[in-house]
Specification:
This protein has 335 residues and is of the alpha/beta class. The longest helix is centred in the middle third of the chain and has 19 residues. The protein is 27% helix and 30% strand. It has an 8-stranded mixed sheet with strand order 8-7-5-3-2-1-18-19, covered by helices on one side. The protein has one domain: Ribonuclease Z/Hydroxyacylglutathione hydrolase-like (Metallo-beta-lactamase, Chain A, 4-Layer Sandwich), CATH 3.60.15.10.
Length: 335
């Protein structure tokens, strides 16, 4: 069984993967957004669970709403002797190219400070740094036959990103600001029957590429998916999501918070709500649900009854911090 938790971190991403190897508890972290200087839900999770060792932390791509909390998380781990085994990232290109993805001088310095700390830990032998891509031979075993593999970025996406970078690069002025979403990881967690697809802020064109890789997407049915880029209409690929092999009911999660970009787009929410096989969830509207799961060899039906948001008190809304799912064989249960 694998537990997948989408933390409510406002407009950004933070996903926690938990599993067991024998009796040993394991944890991996995908992105870490910090809501404020004193509010880091991923760090709170590490403290609450008394975690002593982290299998990996992964930065899906170099945008602040995906890395702003990593620096405080890593410093806490250093101060409290919590081992971080690996830092995984899509930064195959040099740090100068990564800086170009930043939207301001402040963000450039934050990203540079993060990488400097990570490289210092690497050079001391305290951390392994690995870049990730779509290599099908790069697979991480989890538990109960579940595996984690990367479907993006490919060399095509790396090339598209590099083309957007203008040099010479001047840190004291506005950047060329190429589309950093080309660097996004797409992660598949799966066993022989069931898969989870975590798409970060992936571009629609990347999903078109994956549609051509039939063997890596259609060999299992998706039971849980992440809607790309906080529900942006620009990243919506209706053909991909309609054609994806899935169960009778598949959770579709949007990581989103208060923002000025009109995320999630009405076009996106209307599409997933209208689709008979998707059950749409949002981290900013994660009200308690009750469910009954009915499973057989052919299908999975999850019947959910949501509490009306208007009946939830302000205190209860404030206390809702995550969407959490347990995935086991042909079954996905929301905690």
């Amino acid at each position: 069984m694998v537990n997948i938790t989408f933390k409510n971190v406002g407009q950004g991403d933070s996903i926690i993967i938990e599993w067991k190897e024998g009796s040993l508890y394991k944890i991996g972290i995908i992105d870490c957004n910090q809501i404020s200087s004193s509010d880091n839900p991923v760090l709170d999770h590490i403290i609450d669970t008394e975690t002593k060792e982290i299998e990996f932390i992964l930065l899906s791509h170099p945008h602040k709403d995906h890395y702003s909390g990593f620096l405080s998380l890593i410093k806490y781990c250093i101060e409290n002797q919590i081992v971080i085994k690996r830092f995984l990232h899509t930064g195959i290109v040099s740090i100068d190219y990564l800086k170009a993805a930043s939207r301001s001088v402040v963000e450039i310095k934050e990203l540079a400070n993060l990488y400097k700390l990570l490289m210092d830990l690497r050079d001391k032998g305290d951390l392994i740094m690995n870049s990730i891509d779509d290599n099908p031979d790069t697979i991480k075993n989890l538990s109960d036959g579940f595996k984690l593999e990367f479907l993006a970025p490919s060399s095509i996406e790396i090339d598209n990103y590099i083309r957007g970078v203008n040099f010479p690069f001047d840190e004291e002025h506005s950047t060329s600001n190429p589309n950093g979403n080309w660097l996004c990881s797409i992660i598949k967690i799966h066993n022989d029957n069931t898969s989870v697809l975590l798409s970060s802020d992936a571009e629609s064109q990347v999903l078109n590429r994956l549609n051509k890789k039939n063997g890596r997407l259609k060999s299992q049915k998706a039971i849980l998916v992440q809607v790309p880029h906080h529900g942006s209409s620009k990243n919506l690929n209706k053909t991909f999501w309609t054609g994806l092999s899935k169960y009778q009911k598949t959770y579709a999660v949007i990581s989103v918070g208060k923002n000025s970009y009109r995320h999630p787009s009405k076009e996106v929410t209307d599409f997933f709500n209208a689709h008979p096989n998707y059950l749409l969830e949002r981290t900013d509207l994660s009200y308690p649900i009750s469910e009954k799961a009915i499973s057989n060899s052919a299908s999975l039906d999850i019947i959910s009854e949501k509490i009306n948001p208007s009946t939830v008190s302000a205190t209860d809304k404030k206390s809702i911090k995550e969407l959490s799912y347990q995935v086991s064989n042909d079954l996905c249960i929301k905690n």
